[in-house]
Structure formats: C-alpha cells, structure tokens
Amino acid sequence: MQSKDLVQLAEQFGSPIYVYDAEKIQSQYNRLSKAFSKVNKLRINYAMKALSNVAILQLLKEMGSGLDTVSIQEVMLGLHAGYEPEKIFYTPNGVSLEEIEEVNAMGVQINIDNLSILEQFGTKYPHVPVCIRINPHVMAGGNANISVGHIDSKFGISVHQLPHLVRIVENTKMNIVGIHMHTGSDILDIEVFLYAAEILFDAAKNFKNLEFLDFGSGFKVPYKKDDIETDIEELGKKLSKRFNAFCVEYGKELTLIFEPGKFLVSEAGFFLAKVNVVKQTTSTVFAGIDSGFNHLIRPMFYGSQHHIENISHPKGKERFYSVVGYICETDTFANNRRISEIKEGDILCFRNAGAYCFSMASNYNSRYKPAEVLWIKGEGHLIRAHETFEDLLKNQIALPLAVTAV
C-alpha cells in the first residue's frame, strides 16, 4: 500500500483506524508454505489471538489456513467464519475442564497442557483424539511476557514430567494424536528453535499413534528499516530435513504444523491517527494524537517499537517529536522520534500494527474503539465500524432511582 491510499482511507472512514493489506497477508502465507515445501504434509494454523476480525479469518480460510485458538470464544468465531471443526486447533491455558468439554462437543482438536486436566479428560473421554503441549524448557522470545517455553512458564507440561504423562496415558488408554510446543515470540536464533525441536522429537517417541507434530511459531518480523527477522528460509531448509528424517525413524509420515499469528498479519497492519495538537515544552515537542494506549497498548505494555510516519507530509523536514495519546495518564507511543515535520491535522501512520494491536484494544477512559478496514484488490472495505456511545452503554444496566437515592 502507498501513503496516498492510507490518507484516502483515513479521510473516507475517519480516524483513528486500523487498515490491513490482504496482499501482504497472502505473501507471508505463501512465503511460509514455500519455505517448508519439502515437507509432504504441512499445515498452517493461523493464531487468531493476533487479530480476530471475522473478515481476516475468512481471508485466511480462502488461503487454506486452519486456526489456532486459545478460548472457546475464539473457537466460536472460527466456526462463525466458516471453518470446519477439524480445521480448528484449541490450545487453552488455565481454563476449566467444563470449557474444554464444551469445546470438545464442537468437534475441534483439543490440546491439553496440564497433567491434572489431562487425567480428568482422559478418564471421561479416552477415545477422543488429544494433543499434548510440552514445555521444552527452552528460553526464547524477545520479551519476558512473550517467552513461554522456559522452566518458570505457566504453559505446557514439563518435559521432565514425561514419565507422569506417559503413566496417565497408559492408565486412561487415551488417544494421543499430536505433540505440541511453543517457545515464545520474536525468535531470532533458529538454532534455539531447532534445539527445542529435538526435545519435541524425543518426547514424540513415547507415543505410538501420532498424526502430527506442532512446532508453534514465534517468528520475528522486522519492526523498522534494516531490522533483523527470523530467517524462515534457513529454518525451513534445516527443520524440513530433520522432520522428514524423524518421520522415517518414527515409521509414519506425520503432518508438520505451525501456528503463526504475528508473522502473517503484523506487517500487513497500519494504524492511522490524526494529530490533535503540537505542544512545545521547555525540552520536548509533543505530537498529541486522537488515540492512546486504549487503541495501541504495545509500546506502553511491552516497550515495543512501531515505525511512525507523517503520511500527510512524508517529505517534510525531519524534527524530533514525542508522540503521545489522549489517555489521562502517561501514554507514550514514541520518545524523541525523527518524523517529518508535523502540523495539527496531519495523519500519522504506525506500521506493523496488524498483530496484537486492535485485539488488545479497550474502552479505557470510556473512549470508543476504532474502525477496521481491509485493503483488497485496490479497494478499502470496512470490516468493523467505529464504536458509538450506544456501544458503551450496551450491557450496562442502570439502577432505579429508588435504589440509588441517599
């Protein structure tokens, strides 16, 4: 997409607004598929927690993707978007047995990461095909909040608890069809990923009826010009060779599964916001926009960086700005960032806004959530309307005056 297209969409649909480029999502999907083309059975399950708009789910479904879900609500959204139950993978954490039973009744693939729940589920449903999430105790990920495979993580069944796991499976006679791991997000060193894969291969030898191995995802995308990213092609070459060799050793051709979220949609997303005020203080020039961390929390939450451009005047003289929001507390998107000279009314574009941006938005300060637009075949399609005051009131129940009177 070009800057002029984004400016036009901001004018057409209003700001703040999220825009997603369908062509970029397609190219990322094709890139991952091509990197693992030497594997006979490859399945890509989109991790929909990254961006769960139904239109995006439908788009990925047309590309051939399955879904990776982490809640019963995500499962329901996937079914609503037209996915067949067998194309949906359910990997919860810390949920009740009751929720897992509800999802099981929907016919989707269950993935369990807790010995207690595994035993309870296996006792009641020994014939239901189940996947097990292993914690390989491998530290990976660009931030402590997104590193999920280490020894202190709440995710997965410790690889050191395999004897307990095997005993539960033998006692319940349950049907284990897959083994899963996910080490974390923003993986740079593919050797760490390959090391964790070896742990998964060793764990898989304990189960005789496997149909697939799920290696999670966590591939890093570039956040700025010349930024480093996961070398998908190199990983594809090395892991494909090792996976195919393991299948021969195992005596059966298994399916290799990945569950990318950020990798597919992050670079496809743009967040557009209008500059409300340019404020000069004794030491800083603030560009205050018509948004805040209620719409894009990652810079405040993770310290993440999103490249910011003034798409209204992209070729203006660069100055240093601190870009801030309108939330009534510290609400900073960027400190002393070089951006083309900003004037009130200009549209700023935040790149890499496709993953974990709208999906983490809130109504903090009673602000409305923004709209979402899908750019496809050179045209913008509204896929979520701007919220209104009526949306804020929905589900709230006012008390009768007689109750509130002092």
From TrEMBL:
Modified residues (N6-(pyridoxal phosphate)lysine): K49
Domain Orn/DAP/Arg decarboxylase 2 N-terminal, chain residue ranges per copy: 23-266
Residues annotated to bind substrate: R298, Y302, E329, Y356
Ligand binding (pyridoxal 5'-phosphate): G218, Y356
Record InterPro entries: Ala_racemase/Decarboxylase_C (IPR009006), DAP_deCOOHase_LysA (IPR002986), De-COase2_C (IPR022643), De-COase2_N (IPR022644), De-COase2_pyr-phos_BS (IPR022653), Orn/DAP/Arg_de-COase (IPR000183), PLP-binding_barrel (IPR029066)
Keyword Amino-acid biosynthesis carried by entry: yes
PROSITE patterns, per database record: ODR_DC_2_1
Known catalytic reactions: meso-2,6-diaminopimelate + H(+) = L-lysine + CO2
Gene Ontology terms, MF aspect: diaminopimelate decarboxylase activity
The enzyme's E.C. designation: 4.1.1.20
Pathway noted in the entry: Amino-acid biosynthesis; L-lysine biosynthesis via DAP pathway; L-lysine from DL-2,6-diaminopimelate: step 1/1
Domain Orn/DAP/Arg decarboxylase 2 C-terminal: 18-354
Keywords: Amino-acid biosynthesis, Decarboxylase, Lyase, Lysine biosynthesis, Pyridoxal phosphate
Record carries keyword Lyase: yes
Cofactors required: pyridoxal 5'-phosphate
Function: Specifically catalyzes the decarboxylation of meso-diaminopimelate (meso-DAP) to L-lysine.
Family of this protein: Belongs to the Orn/Lys/Arg decarboxylase class-II family. LysA subfamily.
Complex formation: Homodimer.
UniProt-recorded name of the protein: Diaminopimelate decarboxylase
Organismal lineage: Bacteria, Pseudomonadati, Bacteroidota, Flavobacteriia, Flavobacteriales
Gene (name only): lysA
